[in-house]
Amino acid sequence: MFQEPINIVITGVGGQGNVLAAQVIAVSAVEAGYLVSSGETSGLAQRGGPVMTHVRVFCRQNYGPLVPHGRATVVIGFEPLETMRVLFDYGNRGTVVISNDRPSYPLGCLQCEDSYPEVSLIKDGIKNMVQQSFFIPASELAAQAGTSLAANMVMTGCLAGTGLLPFGKEFFRSTIDKLFPNKLKELNLKAFELGFDQVFQQVV
Amino acid sequence: MKKILTGNEAIARGAYEAGCTIAAAYPGTPSTEILENMAKYQEIYTEWSTNEKVAVELACGASIGGARTLAAMKHVGLNVAADPLFTIAYEGVNGGLVIVTADDPGMHSSQNEQDNRRYAPFAKVAMIEPADSQECKDFMKHAFEVSEIFDTPVLFRLTTRVCHSKGLVELGERTEVGVKDYQKDIKKYVMIPAHSRVRHYQVEERLNRLREYSNNCPLNRIEWGDKKIGIVTSGISYSHAKEVFGDSVSYLKIGFSFPLPDKMIKKFAKAVDKLYVIEENEPYLEDFIRTLGIECLGKEYIPCCEELSPEIIRKAFLPEKDKKVYDSEIKAPSRPPVLCPGCPHRGIYYAVSKYKDVVAVGDIGCYTLGMMPPLSVTDIVICMGAGISASLGFKRASMKGGRDEKIFGFIGDSTFFHSGITGLIDAVYNKTPAVFVILDNSITAMTGHQENPGTGKTLMGEAAPVIDIESIVKAVGIKAEDIRVVDPYNLEMTQAAVKDAHEAQEPFVIITKQPCALIKEVQKKRANIYCSINEEKCTKCKACIKTGCPAIAFKNGQIVIDRSMCNGCTLCAQVCKFDAVEKVGE
């Protein structure tokens, strides 16, 4: 038995495939026999703003779509700064963090009007905030699988690799197989496996 | 069968199962996906209407014509459609009529935070409010039945969180109800004063019957728990309240939220020691409960601003000492939305930004971002259509005040069709010397690429006549010499048009034509085109940076262009005085 609900907060910037990752996680959980609720905050996301998605997995009673502040079981960040931003609101000491290590710079930082913190500082900061954190070269791994756009499936693989969810990776694999068009299946499965191995090796 | 659906998908499914045959909408976050999903059912005629007023009027006609009909819009869209709403409320329906309003507490992508629950008592129509995806589907079927049984349009009120959240939904089969016969009945369907006076009495009588129904309606339910605290709530607020209080309190969960169930509320209030009202934005439930003479705790605890969340409720009713979880030295820079790399709006805003005497009135769409630095062009944004109409008033004030500002009104293609044309006619008729820039990117972009009268395609995927913006501009009386049609990727051409416009003494129109950079075919076509910096020629003057393109950065003392983001629009190359930006690919 697991302590329900499992609260997953996924964050990133528009275009990183955050909502699709949430969809894969939610469908996999349902396929495995669990209940889910999920919500997104995108707003002006397509124009480079932050996107956050919540997925909650449970089996006994119903839960709403929003993870309450401070209650994230796991934060999956597709971008280090956004990981940190979300962690401030939703994290606690026991939250597990999985973050892509590649920054996506806000316009103000690109133009030197504002400064983006050193990634190493963000890493150290996050390490001090939670007990377990994984920094993943997700964009590189995705590129190995075929395209850096598949970083979202690398990150999904990482989540599966933590063993935090009460179901196995076969449910993720069959969901990816179902949701992606034929020509993208292999690539996304490969990205998923690369992510899975990264974290699984560190966990066991 | 169970499926994970968003609220919007579930509404489309519910309308489908209820035998809905006609649906119309104007896109607007968070409501857009309702019609996009309804269009997947072949049994339903769906359309993007030119605006919300047209959508609701079409829906009124369809309902009177006998079809179960749905119209959908975002909250501010109902303001546009308020005129038909208030009168169809008198006429009633033939086929069931459901009007969906999707409110946006927290203003994730809206200009205000109005609470459209207030429209139901104002227009005297029934209102239904679901809390999750399953209810979205089930309540929609209920809404069509209520509409036909009580001869009333039904306002179906959603919020962003309900629209965009996902949950498991048990699917059902479609009940084919067909299209009812139409019987001529001018006393019901022609609202001249003599008829309306009679209908108003019937509307009041209908409200009494609806109130009785509300007291016995399965959409309003009591969940008894401990009776020390009783919570009256509705919509997503119910799920937030449950998150905080769990099963430790009693709930009156309202799903049929106009007319409110007075007897049920009294009974519930009597049975509990303390009554809390937990609702987002306005004190809609609370005001009603107080008119019943019942004391309750509501808005003095829960703010009426912003989206409600479990933590706001917890802070309000179960305050703990503020325990700060984290302390960090790191200051996270903000990440505001920006015009995309290759956005065709950038060129025209860049050209206008050079004139310091311009006051720019914007409109609703991606191009609202023309206010963001470094372009910082837009001064005023109100609502759809105001990009043109508010310019007219500002110009008049400027003239009366003896100021010599130049007024530029900006509006998009879809928005021009929505409510820009009337303003332009006003400009010609009243000879208001302002400049109107119609940003034609051949799509309704902001809401995620919907078709519109200018795109040559309907919501149902059929080919359609392309309504030509330039012809409309000419037809309403803008002189040919006062019209410039430019490619905003061509800076010289765009600058020349802006210069002419700036000097013009009568109504002047610039139409920029270049499709949105995010349209799939455009992305494919431009996939191998990009710009790169010739470091030998680059003097690091940062002129290119000042276009505000997120593909360009100043990193480690060098200007760099991110090839994966750049689509080769070449605006940066055109502003570079040193030929240091080179275009690669064709």
Can you offer a commentary on this structure?
Chain A is of the alpha/beta class. Chain A has eight helices and six strands. In chain A, strands 2-3-1-4-5-6 form a six-stranded mixed β-sheet, with helices on both faces. In chain A, helix 2 links the parallel strand 4 and strand 5 (96-100). In chain A, helix 5 (138-145) packs across helix 6 and helix 5 (138-145) crosses helix 8. Chain B has a seven-stranded mixed β-sheet with strand order 3-2-4-5-7-6-12, sandwiched between helices. A six-stranded parallel β-sheet of chain B has the order 15-14-16-17-19-18, with helices on both faces. Chain B has a four-stranded mixed β-sheet with strand order 9-11-10-13, with helices on both faces. Chain B has 21 helices and 23 strands. Chain B is of the alpha/beta class and 586 residues long. In chain B, strand 18 (483-486), helix 19 and strand 19 form a beta-alpha-beta unit. At the A-B interface, helix 1, strand 2, helix 2, helix 3 and helix 4 of A face strand 8, helix 11, helix 14 and strand 21 of B. Strand 2 (35-41) of chain A pairs antiparallel with strand 8 of chain B.
Order of helices and strands of chain A: EHEEEHEHHEHHHH
Q: CATH architecture of the largest domain in chain B, please?
A: 3-Layer(aba) Sandwich
CATH architecture of chain A: 3-Layer(aba) Sandwich
The number of helical segments of chain A is: 8
The main sheet of chain A orders its strands as 2-3-1-4-5-6
Low-confidence stretches of chain A: none
Instruction: Domain count of chain A, please report it.
Output: 1
Quick one: how many beta strands of chain B? Answer: 23
Classified by CATH, the class of the largest domain in chain B is Alpha Beta
Outline the fold blueprint:
The complex is a heterodimer of chains A (204) and B (586).
Chain A: E1 6-13, H1 18-31, E2 35-41, E3 50-58, E4 74-77, H2 80-90, E5 96-100, H3 107-110, H4 119-129, E6 132-136, H5 138-145, H6 151-162, H7 169-179, H8 182-203
Parallel strand pairs in A: 1-4, 4-5, 5-6
Antiparallel strand pairs in A: 1-3, 2-3
Helix pairs in contact in A: 1-6, 1-7, 2-4, 5-6, 5-8, 6-8, 7-8
Chain B: E1 2-6, H1 7-17, E2 22-25, H2 32-38, E3 45-48, H3 52-64, E4 69-74, H4 75-80, H5 82-91, E5 97-103, H6 119-123, E6 126-128, H7 133-150, E7 154-159, H8 160-164, E8 166-170, H9 186-189, H10 193-216, E9 221-223, E10 229-234, H11 235-245, E11 250-254, E12 256-258, H12 262-271, E13 274-278, H13 284-291, H14 310-317, H15 345-353, E14 358-361, E15 378-380, H16 386-400, E16 406-412, H17 413-429, E17 435-440, H18 469-475, E18 483-486, H19 491-503, E19 508-513, H20 520-525, E20 530-533, E21 552-555, E22 558-561, H21 571-575, E23 581-584
Parallel strand pairs in B: 2-3, 2-4, 4-5, 5-7, 6-7, 10-11, 10-13, 14-15, 14-16, 16-17, 17-19, 18-19
Antiparallel strand pairs in B: 1-8, 6-12, 9-11, 20-23, 21-22
Helix pairs in contact in B: 1-2, 1-7, 3-5, 11-14, 15-19, 16-17
